[in-house]
Write a structure and sequence with these properties.
It is a single chain. With 223 residues, the protein is of the alpha/beta class. The chain has a single domain, classed as 3-Layer(aba) Sandwich (Rossmann fold), CATH 3.40.50. Helix content is 43%, strand content 14%. It has seven helices and seven strands. Strands 3-2-1-4-5-6-7 form a seven-stranded parallel beta sheet, sandwiched between helices. The chain is globular and about 50 Å long.
Amino acid sequence: MTPVAIITGASRGFGRALAVSLVDDGWHVVVDARSGPFPDRTHVVRGDVTDAAHRAELVRVAESLGRLDLLVNNASTLGPSPLPHLADFPVDGIGDVFRTNAGAPLALVQAALPLLRRSGGAVVNVTSDAAVEAYEGWGLYGASKAALDQLSNVLAAEEPDVRVWAFDPGDMRTQMHQDAFPGEDISDRPEPETVAVPALRRLLADRPASGRVRATDLVAVTA
């Protein structure tokens, strides 16, 4: 059967580039996106990943296609821009960052697990080097991604029949990275299509054990 993926945050950037790559390779892809257009075999579900009804609809569409082989939790929020130091972070916004970057991915995994178990599928939780490195201004975003890393670790231990990877794509030329550095030139960052997407495709092809993986390491192995 044709493989099926759910990709969140696919309006632009890495999520969109990955969706197009998989569709070009014959997959059906269910995308959480606010805008298009997308190629054929892309099933667009517009909404917010923090909304339970929207998550349920993503899984329902995948189930209607007969299976689910891959869930990519890519949707994230940066938080305030420009990035504030922790001493200045608006405490009322902490919940929004964690809800989007850690809570929503876990909730979507919970909804999708029955299908993923059935297919021996995989979960890709898109993380960041900010989860493991100390960068000024990246405290809350990094903390939310560190939480996602640990959720990935425990999920992998609890679900041995499903691959669970925390995937660090590295710096990319995306709107989120531009928002993190307003007014700066980020043209030195690679486009998602050039590094992150080929690395993830390599990950899907090789299916190593669950764990944390970096795009740069996968690309180095390919080279």
